Fold these 2 entries.
Entry 1:
Amino acid sequence: MSDRPPHEGPSDRAPDEIEPTLARARRAYELARLRRALVHALPSLALFVVLMLEGGARDTTGLVASLALYPTTVLALHLGQGAGAAALPALLFGLVPFVIVRVAESSGHVCLGEACVSWCLPACVIGGLAGGALVGARGRRERDRLGYALAAITLVVLEGAVGCRCAGHAGLAGIVLGTLAGTTVPWLAWRTPPVS
Amino acid sequence: MDPARRAALTASMRRLADGDRSAMPELVRAVTPPVRALCERMLGTSASPTADVSDVVQEVVIDLFRRAPDFDRDGDALAWALTIAAWHCRTERRRRGRARTSPLELEPAAPHVEAEDALDDRRLVTALEQACAGLSDKDREVLEAIVAGAPLDAALRKRKERMIVRLRRLLLGDAS
């Protein structure tokens, strides 16, 4: 006959009775999370596919950035908590700078006399601001804000970078600075406790 | 499990499902006792060495953690855990039913024993009952003494040898 009532827990159970189970359970859990992340991150390959269909095989920056979306999304989903919560929304937010830059690219240049300016670089900054603002607004609901911010900003910048290749390195700098700046304004609202 | 601990268990499972690994040790400690209690009830005690039940409990806990990322955040963790535990216990019962080798267990066929095995068991029991019914009263007395483990004197040992010969003829005689 057991000395313990049936449903009373062994909160003081010897650690060596739990450790072997815990170690195997941990491995099973991490593998399950990884398998799930590998599947759920597949939509992040969409930009890469679009780029390839457009014949962008020679666009190294765009290819690298679009391919990097997948492992970054897998990592965020695998880690979970704030980063996991950021992954799929950030993929959508990142489409904003991507689309803005694409529209700007199709508009060509603005010429004043003999001076012509491409819309690409301003569009990268504006797109980054817009993407960052969405990241910041969504982040108010997160408890793990640091994990959320790191994952979301990284993904938005990578997606924006695919579009901002039209402005070269300046475009990359523009999307990074724009996203960071766009996140900063809602960040001031993050100083209040998260919405439960 | 009292409601407060049940709610705490569900909160821990939600945290784990979201990726908070720090919830693991407390979850293992909280979920193991009710799972063990269910497994001991479903797998029985007399025919089940304690080690077998512990193995099943461990497999259940590992399976729970494997499925944790898919846990329904609106669900109850204890009910979910016990459902998984019950599935593992039924699987273990089926496995034991297939591994069973002794034909002389006379309890009613359990549902998990395959129909063909159950039919063979009943045929064997019937054959034994018919053979025993063909024994004389004295032979049956000797058989009962043997089954009861009573010590046999020289006279009983002689009767035992003759009883075995007659029982063998009864069992094999119809077949020939």
Entry 2:
Amino acid sequence: MSSQDNSEENPPQQQDDADGGVLATRDNPFANPGLPPHEHRVQDIDERAAKRSERVVAGLFTLSMLSTIGFIASYVAFPVDKIVYVFPIGHVSALNLSLGLTLGLALFCIGAGAIHWARTLMTDVEVPEERHDIEATPEVREELLAGFQDGVRESDLGRRKLVRNTLIGAMAMVPLTGLVLLRDLGPMPGTMLRHTKWAKGKMLINENTHEPLRPEDIAVGSLTFAMPEGLSEEDHDFNNQIAKAALMIVRLQPENIKDKRELDWSHEGIVAFSKICTHVGCPISLYEQQTHHVLCPCHQSTFDLTDGGRVIFGPAGHALPQLRITVNDKGYLEAMGDFAEPVGPAYWERG
Amino acid sequence: MKKLSARRRHPLAALVVLLFALAATGGLYAAFAPADKAKADEAQASLAIDEGKKLYAVGCASCHGTGGQGTSDGPSLVGVGAAAVDFQVSTGRMPAQQNGAQAPKKPKVYTAAETEQLAAYVASLGAGGPETPNKSQYSLNGKEDAANGGQLFRSNCAQCHNFSGKGGALSNGKYAPPLDGVSPKHIYEAMQTGPQNMPSFPDTVMPEKEKRDIIAYLNKVNSDDTESPGGFQLGGLGPVAEGLFAWVFGLGALVAITIWVAARTTKAKKS
Amino acid sequence: MSTATDTRRKKAPAGERVADWADSRLGIYSLAKANMRKIFPDHWSFMLGEVCLYSFIIIILTGVYLTMFFNPSMGEIVYDGPYVPMQGIRMSEAYASTLDISFEVRGGLLIRQIHHWAALIFVGSMFVHMMRVFFTGAYRKPREMNWVFGFLLLVLGLFTGLTGYSLPDDLLSGTGVRFTQGAILSVPLVGTYLSMFLFGGEFPGHDFVGRFYSIHILLLPGIMLGLVVAHLIMVFLHKHTHWAGPGKTNTNVVGTPFLPVYMGKAGGFFFLVFGVIAAIAAVATINPVWAIGPYRPDQVSTGAQPDWYLGFAEGLIRVMPGWEIDAWGHTLVLGVFIPLVIFPLVLLAIAVYPFIESWATGDTRNHHLLDRPRNTPTRTGFGVAWITTYLTMLIAGGNDLWATHFHLSINGITWFSRIAFFVLPVVSFIVTKRICLGLQRRDKEKVLHGRESGIIKRLPHGEFIEVHEPLSQDQLHTLTAHDQYQPLELEPEVDENGVARKPTRSEKLRVKLSKGLYGEDNQIAKPTVEEYKEITSSHGHH
């Protein structure tokens, strides 16, 4: 019973009978009085009550059977697109509701029946069972250790150091093969995250109409999203490209723009900012046209579009990148180059 | 009646009464004023502006300035156009009850006719703003592409109004309101004019047809007839509502069941 | 031998013959003999683990069904199915097949909803189960390993949930994946490489759904299944804990036998859990991907949250200030990386507590009697503080919804959460401890003076007193059965032989911990037999 040994360092104040003393003595009113006598349930002494329980259980099981039939019937009867109005849920799929409720009832009744059975008809006499120590007896332990020593000795592992050391070396190295194989999970980052599809001379294409934008299209207080000319939703890498190139265009009164560079990079008060949040990359576009703040719906980073996209609240760490724009000779807005800094979330190599 | 008498002492009650009176006067005047059919349109227009000016002086000028030039309490209305006034006034947002982060939607104060007069007056203050849209612009004609509307909605609107238009939070107590039960006209006007902090989506960047597509999409996903095949929509708010539901009804029910399963069966009474 | 078996075979019914057949090959009889009539104690809180087990089974069953129809591909197609608001929209095959399951497979929507509801309930029940084990001290020796296994199951459950939630490639889950990717990027030195390798290049690429699929349906559930089996084997091996009470001791277990009572209850309970979840899936929509739309990295919906169990991580990242350090051509993205580190640390805090406690007590005995939470105020306080931390961040994770539904400022909620993250756990720790000590005092009072009967008696000299009824011996025992540790004391710096001995730092820490757990202010000495006798003999007339 080593497990019952008290720690030498810190013996808890132990109840005298903690080890299962069942006897309540006059000396110790707190002693464990032992299991109370079993009290009979109604069902134990009244056969009619027991019969009632039996009928309830059987009734539940029968209800489950009916419900299963109902399930099959619903499956056959309702077309998959049948919509019905059920108060108070709304316009729901008849199939989903009927299958779910019949399945739920069929299962629930089995469970309720089984538990009612267990609670009222099976025994409820509580009996004690002794616990036994899990740990081995000292003899078993000795025997095992001896056997282990024999095994180690017979393997010669202890004596032939060369075998042992090379084995350890081999086992340590072989997982490297797996590690090497993981290499082709993806390309090296390179400078991929630094560049977007934007380049000098690329027109700003309205995402709604897929037409190039002109300055006069963009009113003060309006919000427009654009993608670079030459990018199409059908492109194989459209998602990868738009994840970096998505652009948000607003028009400010030039006198409201506080940041000098922002003013330089704008055209008649039209400013183009990256739509990708610099925090973790959600498309940020909750533009408040009176405050000129733009809020990220994911983590509420707030940027001031009149002040170079500066962060004024929330977890983003740096300003929104701005795209330098101008007007080409046909009167359309175009980029004067790629973003000057990487768009989207910051990373170690960003610098 | 009860409602009416309860609201008699509302701070705005006097204003409402006054406005009714004004409207009645205006209406009577309009009804009895002799007018030549040929001159009628022009005359009515200038009449509307005059009436609107009176309404404006009473209900709007204290915040927006006597000439609509704006004050510290309200923005300038020069050049906002008739549609903006129609939206703000007929959704009850204006006149605002108090200064706050945002003027909420509430029962409207002005009648349709008064709203038109106010709109006419404000539109006369400066050119440029969109006119109140007519029925052919915003009502659906069956040619709308709801799927395209959905795409546009997710690109332009869902970031503030949620994927099915249930609304969402903006900074410092402002919010994008839910679009449940908002009339097509008001949705159209909102896109056109960009009320309060909402940016506008003028026809130059989002043509009429696309606006109707969006309205058609909203009709599909956010109306009383919206199909929700899976059952309760739980507000259409996503995982937060689902998590709460799973805890309250899922785990709540299951814990209640564990209590039943483990409870002692009733004992026979000791006699 | 042959004759003996032959006669047995002839007489035995078919079922028995099958069992004989199996036994002679597998030895199932000796295994069954040890466990068939195993005693299980009855208490509602002991069934919480079963909720986890059963919802896990339900998830596996429905998950297998879903794999028959789901197409884990990010290849793009144009939708032409029955759901009108999506017709003509470009989407991944993963998203399209999720729409097919929802709209074209009969019962597919139901199974999808059962799968997802069961997942939410699975993780929820794991939390509740874990806190039950924590507050009752059921993790103490010999069950520490089972505590660790359970904890691993919770962590794996979170990641299985995350990968599964991302599979339909809808706008909401895609936003979540984007967040995950942004968080990975923030890892110093290797962030970009990890991201490139996980996504097969730049985000979103065409790989992650397929990769998450393998992880979600094979890798993680495979490990979890192994852990669940081990967890259950250990429950059988250790036998269940039970509450102190008449007849119940540290060396026995009192309850009803596995066959038939517990089998009836536990077996029936599986059907109840399944039935409840099926009914929920019948009436309540979960993750209506058709309304959310397919993922495009330039689109987003407000109210972008993960499933509730990761709402805690979401909250951390929302309240974190945007710290970013640029130096020597590198960027340290603390604003994202710190929450990324705090998240596992908070989870680990509860996981390692049992080991810290056992180190502080130095107790190596087996514990099969559960503690009442009030009798271990420091542990209970710590557990409540941990839950408070979790809840605070969960609330912060939904700040936009609280803002709109309770007309609050989102910035205000964020600031509140920032402060609450540090303040509320401390407050809740202190308050909980006070409450526990108060309850201990009340127990002591009850033991020594009896139960307040509500009967007022007038004594001959006019004084009114309330009659206190003495407790029965059952109750007396139950209220005094718990052990109380004495706090450790630092050994004297000079031992009896006069040799100077400086206590090491770890010894000092241990003493401090022990005092924090069991010191004078942290537990109420339980009534002794002497106290009881003195009081009962002097106030015998009560």
